[in-house]
Amino acid sequence: MGMKWKWKQNKNGEDRGVPLLFSIILVFCILGVVVFSVSRKITAEMSASAIQNLSESLDLIQCTIEAILRKEAEFQRFIAKELVVIKDPENYIRTYETDQSMVRISLIRSGETEGVSNTGEVFSEEGLDFSSGKTIDGLAVSQSYLNYMGTWAYTMKCPVLKDGREIAVLYIEYVFDAIDRSLPEGFYNKRAMLYIMDAETERFVLKPKGMGERSAGHVNLIDFYRANDIVDETLRAEVGDCVANGKNILFYHDIRQKKALNYMWAVNDGAIYLIGYVPVEAIQQEGRTVNQNIFIVVAVMLIAFFLCCVLYYFNQREQIRIRKEREAEREMHNRQLAEALQAAQIASNSKTMFLSNMSHDIRTPMNAVLGFTTLLATDAEDPAKVREYTKKIMASGRHLLSLINDILDVSKIESGKVVLSFEKFALNDLISSVDAIIRPMAKEKKQIFHVEVTGIRHECLLGDETRINQILINLLSNAVKYTQEGGNIWLRMAGLKQRSDQYEHMLIEVEDDGYGMTPEYLETIFDAFTRAENSTTNKVQGTGLGMAITKNIVELMGGSIEVSSEVGRGSLFRVEMEFRIPEEQINLQFWEKSGIRRILAIDGDVRSCEGIRTLMEDTKVSVDTVVSAEEALRLVTDGSSPEAAYDMILLDWNLPDVDGIQMAESIRKQTGEMTPVLFLAAFDTDGMEAVFRMKNAGILIRPFFVSALQEKIREMQTVETDEEHAGSAQGLSLEGMCFLAAEDNEINAEILIEILKIEGAACEIAENGQLALERFENAAQGEFDAILMDVQMPVMNGYEATRAIRALKRSDAGEIPIIAMTANAFAEDEKEALAAGMNFHVAKPIDVELLKKVIRQCVDR
Amino acid sequence: MKRGSLKKRKWAAVLVVLAASGIVACQGNGDGGANLITVEEEEAEVVSLFSPMEKTNPDADNIARTAFDLTVGMAEEKLNIKVGYKTYTAENYQEKSYDDVTLDRVRNHMDDIYLLNPDTIQILGEEGRLADLSGLSSAQNLREVVRTANTVNGKLVAIPQEVVANGLFVNKDMFDQYGLSLPETPEDFLACCKVFKENGIETPVGANRWWLENFVFAQAYARMYNGGDVEAEIEALNSGASRYSDYMRPGFEFLKQLIDLGYIDAQKASVSEAIDGEGPDFLAQKTPIVMAYWGAANAETAYGNPDFHLQVIGFPSSLGQMPVVSITGFGVCADAENVEEAKKLLDEILSDESLTVYTETNRVISPSRNVAVDCIPALKPLYDRISENVYVLGSNAGMKVEQWGNTCLIVRKLLNGATVDECMAEFDRLQDESLEEKD
């Protein structure tokens, strides 16, 4: 879903982005085209303007030069006219003072080839070429030439007419330097190059000073072409054509890698030419400026646009980031909500199923109770049936009780109210009690229950025995439940490597070869309110809370539990826990008192031998272990001396190929008849009756525990009589006793009265704590043997009543046993009860045997 | 949040700065009166210079500013004088030569300063058309050789920016190969040529139609310029008391001998241009000896980068290796429009400071005693001789018969088969003409 949404987003993003990108590119293209067009237009206009501009400048120069030439011609005509009227024209010429432009004046009489000149030399037309036919204002003008002053000059000739008849010709030589003086001092900011060329000879006759450049080609047109790299023959031909026809020509050609406008501008009908070039940038300075400004504006716009884009980009990025964060947050919330919903649904489903299960599970025994109660009423006369029914009612009742206990346990654990009570316990006792419960269950289903204990160093440990017991019972009863008839159940306890001297590190394994579990079920096995439901197991009843309780208790104890299972091959639960080792472990005096210093253990199992040695390490009793009968006999023989003699023999009943009794007898032949022999055997080993016939012999139930051994030794050393047993049984009788019971529930009160009545005891009921207090206050000394106190009662509860009773100023107020009898069955309830001053705590429903035992204990004390 | 607002502030600041600069940039030049013409630069005084060179535009691309332009630029800046360049280049041999035009222009006082060749210095000096430059402060630093060469009738009429020294360019490796020491005298030279010739070197001396006269000058004037009474001897020549042909004969006879013995290929030499003709063989080590000017040893296009051990020595003479010095110079037209400014300008471009720039740029011998040249090792022998004031002049403005051009033309006649006597007769004719002019 999430992915789909994301994909849609991307797709949308692309959909938006691509047209936007194209739009931007389009806008830029349009902008570029517009700017380019404008620039081109400006350039074209500037170019046209430059041509116009240059043309005007050149026209101006042309006009100036032509004006000079015309003035010179006019002046020459004027002199010619003057000469007509002057008496001695030759003398006039000779004495004529020239100026900067007119450098020589000469006269040749008509019909003569030589004449006079103001330079004093004989003058002839020789060296002057008027063949071009060019004129200035009607006067013939010569080709340009280098004159006597070393500068370029031209001569105009003017006929001297008298009465319309030519009497002489006046020659005046002019220098181009004179024109130079009238020309602008370099134009286009002195960047333009200007030569004057004689059209006929194509010789450059004037190069204004200071305007040249090295190798600029100042000699003639060919030199100009060479210097400026004008090699295009077509262009040259065109130029040549124009020059020949006296036309102007302007053309673009790069001069020194710069675009330049080259010109050939005819003056005086093409007699002379203005030649040169102007770099385009010199003419188009303003154009360049405009283009530069356009470029700057465009650049600024682009920068601004770019900045906007950057701003937009950062803004978008920020927005996207925020959106993504929000989306992520929302997604997380959604996920959490979904998870919570799922969890709630699961929980709801679980609880619904649990309720459904409970309904079924509770109704089933309840049905049995009610059903049998009905039958009981019918068959009240038949004692056999009555016993049968009551037995079944009792079983159903117990089952109901266990259901209720489990539910309560779970709710307590879940609400974190479980308090562990750490006390000393013996592994031996633990295993014995577990064995006592499980073995019959297994036996009923024809299953074999194996108990193995290995590598345990300390059998007396600190821990909540009840809870450990609960763990084992839960695991084992489950194993029995979920294993088919004839299967095997294993309980293994193994000592692991100690992490600390103060703790026994233990692995408890419960294995079966039963139905096993599916991987899916394995995942939820430790969750509350689940139960393996399938066709094979649905006939098994249970709360489905056992595993959850077990796991919680294990974890509460700092341990860990794991399970592996395969359908049809069985399951294996592994519990790893550490138990604190109590400081006073060993009762060394016992061994001394018992006179046991050396023990020989004969066991076919090596691990069992090791276990015995390990457990006996701290007792200071020397233990020799052997695995074969031969070796045992050898040791016994060797140890026949009083110092080396064994004080006790532990003999494996199932020693291979050896009969236990015979073996014992063989040993006793060496050690003497009085040496105690204890046969190590499993709980339900058959054929051991012979042992009881042997003197000083007994059976020690496997697994081996020191405490069990001690117990056995004590048993063997103490002769217990049947009478004593009977006495102790009598000691539990409540015959003749009288109790004050504080109980607000009438049915409970009645049941209590009836039970005590059966036991021969009387009971007076007070309906609440207050009444109980008052009754006791008013009672005679010794009237009541004990007070049975309910806790939850109206007016005054049990705790308050107890405190009040203990506070009474009666001599027996502090001594009278007060026994809590309450449905508040938890450890903390017990603690609170004791704290209130009660002596014992008995949980409802009342176990008559337990109650009797407790009362006796209190009263005897 | 705080960081975000800081960022925003920064952006705002940037935008404000941009806006401000935009507004400032858009403001026009508000000041100025009603007159829209911007103030024109005051034009500096213009001194016109006539030379074969055009001024280099400092902004022109790919044009290296010449050493001369650099010094002119320095002077212009210092004196606030503009130099207007004028030039003339003959289109062909039928047109007037640069020297002809120079003479016309000086005589018509068209320009202020002229770059003059030795013969025009002599002619114009004689005509008294050149101003006396001996009063310039830069003239006080001149080497004697320069002063002597450019003094006409007691007036220093021209001063050059460089002393052009000619010498023999020899392939030292080839001399060493044949166990020859570098020649001091004409006899030594002949002996060396003989050895080369015998060893299969076809033409031991590479020559062109321009520079063979150096051999003549070295032998003709070695004694006069080195220990002789120069003034008296020149006076004797100018007055006709002694004959140029007497001075010139040993050199011509020596050249004739070289030609006759096949040490010089006269036919080839008579049609060869300088360096173009003999250069390739010399660089290819087929010819062990050529003659050239000082700058050829520095120029990549000439003999600047040979594959052998190059040495530049003087021409053989009775006084040993003899550099031949020819001197051009800048002269000021005595009747020019801006004589004083021209003199000032000249004084500036000939100052030690300017000449140092010139010398360092072109690596030539400076006319100033105070400016030394850091010459390449190949030129050291020649430079040492000049430093010791051992040289002969290829031209002397004091001599009425122009030496450099005339001798060149007469040597060409020798190359073309004239006898030594015929050549000497030519000298006598020139001397006689000069004597006639004087009269």
Number of strands of chain A: 30
Strand content of chain B: 5-15%
Main beta sheet of chain A: 8 strands, antiparallel
- Largest inter-chain contact set: A-B, 24 and 34 residues
**According to CATH, what is the class of the largest domain in chain B?**
Alpha Beta
Shape of chain A: rod-shaped
Number of helices of chain A: 24
CATH topology of the largest domain in chain B: D-Maltodextrin-Binding Protein, domain 2
Low-pLDDT parts of chain A are: 1-11, 211-215, 532-541, 719-730
Multimer state: heterodimer
Question: For the report, how would you describe the main beta sheet of chain B?
Answer: 6 strands, mixed
CATH architecture tag of the largest domain in chain B:
3-Layer(aba) Sandwich
- State the separation between the terminal residues of chain B, measured CA to CA: 111 Å
**Broad structural category of chain A:** alpha/beta
Outline of chain B: globular
CATH superfamily of the largest domain in chain B: Periplasmic binding protein-like II
Low-confidence parts of chain B lasting 5 or more residues at pLDDT below 50? 56-64
Strands of chain B, total number: 12
Q: How many domains make up the 3D coordinates of chain B?
A: 2
Q: In terms of topology, how is this protein built?
A:
The complex is a heterodimer of chains A (861) and B (439).
Chain A: H1 2-85, H2 89-95, E1 102-109, E2 114-117, E3 122-124, E4 135-136, E5 139-141, E6 145-146, E7 152-162, E8 165-175, H3 176-182, E9 193-198, E10 203-206, H4 221-227, H5 233-244, E11 249-255, E12 258-267, E13 272-279, H6 280-283, H7 285-378, H8 383-414, E14 423-426, H9 427-444, E15 448-454, E16 460-463, H10 465-481, E17 488-495, E18 503-512, H11 519-524, H12 546-556, E19 560-566, E20 570-580, H13 588-594, E21 598-602, H14 606-616, E22 622-626, H15 629-638, E23 648-652, H16 660-671, E24 677-681, H17 689-693, E25 697-701, H18 706-717, H19 722-731, E26 738-742, H20 746-758, E27 762-766, H21 769-778, E28 786-789, H22 798-807, E29 818-822, H23 827-836, E30 840-843, H24 848-860
Parallel strand pairs in A: 15-17, 21-22, 21-23, 23-24, 24-25, 26-27, 26-28, 28-29, 29-30
Antiparallel strand pairs in A: 1-2, 1-8, 2-3, 4-5, 5-7, 6-7, 7-8, 9-10, 9-13, 11-12, 12-13, 14-16, 17-18, 18-20, 19-20
Helix pairs in contact in A: 1-7, 7-8, 8-12, 9-10, 10-12, 15-16, 21-22
Chain B: H1 2-26, E1 45-50, H2 67-79, E2 81-86, H3 98-107, E3 113-116, H4 118-127, H5 144-149, E4 151-152, E5 155-156, E6 164-171, H6 172-177, H7 186-198, E7 205-206, H8 213-225, H9 230-239, H10 244-260, H11 266-271, H12 279-283, E8 289-293, E9 310-313, E10 324-326, E11 329-332, H13 339-349, H14 352-362, H15 380-387, E12 392-393, H16 404-415, H17 420-438
Helix pairs in contact in B: 2-13, 2-14, 3-4, 8-10, 10-17, 16-17
